[in-house]
Structures are given as structure tokens and as C-alpha cells.
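Structural prep section.
Before we set up the soaks we want a predicted structure of the protein with tetrahydrodeoxyuridine in place, mainly to decide which crystallisation condition to try first. Input record follows.
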Amino acid sequence: MEEVELLLKEARRAMKRAVAPCSNFRVGVALLGRERVYTGCNVENPSLMLSECAERVAILKAVSEGEKQIRALMIVSSDNDYCYPCGSCRQLIFEFAPEADIYIASRRGIRKYTIKELLPFGFRREL
Ligand code: THU
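Run finished without errors. Recording the C-alpha cells verbatim:
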């Protein structure tokens, strides 16, 4: 199966696992690492400050599993429109998936971006 199709299928599956009682807005993400796919969904909490975006869940899952090369990332949501990642998630992508192809899918099609397009002049500091 073509890479983009596989990611779309996995992101849609992940979206079904979203826990979104507060917003009713479901998001699913699939990341392509060096050899495998990681997924994430948004997980909300009644204490709203603890809610997590799907991108953040997927990226931290991958990084915590030792993934060193996130090659592509697919974002889907339950909305009709394209779901662009929030500012915090853009910074995480900038940090951990700087070379990734970023796909955002809606019912109208799939758009492709780089993180440099979505986050020009992102914060960088060598530690
Ligand atoms: N959300 C994501 O998971 N990813 C995005 O790119 C935008 C927003 C989540 C956060 C919250 O659970 C819900 O969508 C509504 O904002």
C-alpha cells in the first residue's frame, strides 16, 4: 500500500480512539518512523489543562520508543475542514520531525507541507 494511503488509514483508525467529551472534536495522527508507524489521538480531561493534542501524543509515543527519524505525519479530524496543528504542536514537530512531510487530510483532499512552511523561524537552541 502506498505510504500516504497507509498513514491516512492509520490516522482515521486512531481518530476513532479520540477521547473528546469536552470539544467533541476528534483528531487522529499517524507518523511514519524509520521502520514503523505510530499513532495518536486527542485525549481530553475534564480538567481541561490536562488535555493533549493528537500530534503531541503521537510524537511523544514515537520519541519515547526511541524513534530517531519521523519521515511523515498525517493529521485527520472529525471536522469538515483541514485541521492545522496548534502552535505548541508545530514547535514539537520542528524539534522532533524537522524533515517530515506533513499531510493534512479533509474530505476535500490531502494537503502537504513542511514544518518550515507551518512554523517559519521556530525556536531552536542547542542544548
Ligand atoms: N486538537 C488536536 O488534537 N490537534 C490539533 O491539531 C488541533 C486541536 C484537539 C485538542 C482538543 O482536544 C480538540 O482538538 C479541540 O480543540
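Observations: The chain has one domain: 2-118.
Flagged for discussion at group meeting.
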